[in-house]
């Protein structure tokens, strides 16, 4: 079978390319990636990827005008009669195009719902909520990264419609690069009774922007240090907001490293004791799974993408993004249960194996095409 993947984010992260390389072993695929004219990208596209620079920054203010430009670019690129299925990777930007093509050419489609769909489109452009709901209603399947995120999305629809949409919902998390699973670490340990002066090394990986909320982690570390614990924080990521960077570096216990490739990053994971990131918004968060592969317990935001991947206290703990006292307590709980959490993290990280996840996608594709 042949699948058209509509993915406006394909060129911004290697995540999608790794996924597609696994899917290419199972189905025939073409990827259409509509992007902003002149946008910086970090991925070299494979030969089955068509990148269309087809809209400008101002077009983002006018959803329907932007969609017309994307549609024209797609129609120039493909003969749609050759496709058996469409996979849209966002609800609004990609899903709207998928629904139009489905109506025009009779091709079934599946759609994923992302953080930007809810926290940007639904929240800031509520007039688009009915269209988003209609896209989900007409899809053959709706993909969510976690049960928690599905519940968040369904809070925008009536109970009756939520029940109908739930019948076609599939929970499939993102996978991580095979590199991390090939190079899993051994389980880590702290001393049985940590000395007050034992150094606890916390790691944050992500862009230095306000919504990543790294300052909350620094504040929690400061509280722990006032309690007499030697806790240090290492932050790795691109500086997107200079004020955030300066706030973090104002703490003498915080160190910073710029972005690095995975071969170097793995050393920092292995030299850390736990991973903490309580972003204000997060669709999924690959860094949590990467950290797990190196035996690190994780603390993640309650109600965001990674929450619900595992029961509370299995690989770490959820925490409110605005409660420093709770975050301080959660870090203490990780220290108290460290060995068990580290072993669990290594055992459970195989959940994020792209080979198995793409096998699930391919099975769903065939099920829909054969219906």
Q: Could you explain the architecture of this structure?
A:
The protein starts with a strand and ends with a helix. It is α/β, with parallel strands linked by helices and 371 residues long. The strands form 2 sheets. It has a 7-stranded parallel beta sheet, with helices on both faces. A 6-stranded parallel beta sheet has the order 10-9-8-11-12-13, sandwiched between helices. The chain folds into 2 domains: 2-175 and 353-370, 3-Layer(aba) Sandwich (Rossmann fold), CATH 3.40.50; 178-351, Glycogen Phosphorylase B (Rossmann fold, 3-Layer(aba) Sandwich). It is built from 15 helices and 13 strands. Strand 1, helix 1 and strand 2 (28-36) form a beta-alpha-beta unit. The model has no long low-confidence stretch (mean pLDDT 93). 43% of the residues lie in helices and 18% in strands.
Oligomer: single chain
How much of the sequence is in beta strands? 15-25%
Poorly predicted regions:
none
The largest pleated sheet is described as: 7 strands, parallel
Mean pLDDT: 93
Measured as a percent range, the helix fraction is 40-55%
Helical stretch tally = 15
Structural class: alpha/beta
Q: Which descriptor suits the 3D outline? A: globular
User: What is the third-level CATH name, the topology of the largest domain?
Assistant: Rossmann fold
Radius of gyration: 21 Å
């Amino acid at each position: 079978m042949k699948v058209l993947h509509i993915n406006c984010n394909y060129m911004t992260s290697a995540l999608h390319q790794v996924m597609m390389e696994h899917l290419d072993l199972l189905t025939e695929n073409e990827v259409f990636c509509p992007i902003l004219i002149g946008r910086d990208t970090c991925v070299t596209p494979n030969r089955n990827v068509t990148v269309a620079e087809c809209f400008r920054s101002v077009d983002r203010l006018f959803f329907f005008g932007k969609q017309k430009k994307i549609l024209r670019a797609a129609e120039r690129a493909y003969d749609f009669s050759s496709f058996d299925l469409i996979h849209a990777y966002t609800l609004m930007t990609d899903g709207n195009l998928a629904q139009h093509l489905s109506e025009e050419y009779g091709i079934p489609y599946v759609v994923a719902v992302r953080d930007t769909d809810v926290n940007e489109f639904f929240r800031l452009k509520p007039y688009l909520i009915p269209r988003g709901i209609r896209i989900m209603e007409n899809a053959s399947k709706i993909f969510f990264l976690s049960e928690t995120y599905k519940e968040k999305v369904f809070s925008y629809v009536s109970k009756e419609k939520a029940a109908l949409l739930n019948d076609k919902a599939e929970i499939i998390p993102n996978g991580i690069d095979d590199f991390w699973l090939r190079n899993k670490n051994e389980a880590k340990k702290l001393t049985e009774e940590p000395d007050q002066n034992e150094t606890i090394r916390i790691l944050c990986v992500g862009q230095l922007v306000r919504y990543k909320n790294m300052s909350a982690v620094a504040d929690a570390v400061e509280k722990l240090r006032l309690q007499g614990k030697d806790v240090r924080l290492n932050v790795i990521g691109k500086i997107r907001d200079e004020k955030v960077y300066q706030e973090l570096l104002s703490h003498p216990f915080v160190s910073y490293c710029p972005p690095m490739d995975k071969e170097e990053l793995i050393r920092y994971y292995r030299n850390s004791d736990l991973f903490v990131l309580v972003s204000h918004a997060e669709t999924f968060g690959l860094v949590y799974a990467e950290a797990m592969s190196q035996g690190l317990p994780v603390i993640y935001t309650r109600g965001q993408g990674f929450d619900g991947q595992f029961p509370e206290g299995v690989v770490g703990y959820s925490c409110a993004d605005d409660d420093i006292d709770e975050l301080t307590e959660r870090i203490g709980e990780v220290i108290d249960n460290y060995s068990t959490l580290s072993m669990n993290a290594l055992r459970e990280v195989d959940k994020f194996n792209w080979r198995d996840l793409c096998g699930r996608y391919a099975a769903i594709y065939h099920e829909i095409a054969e219906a």
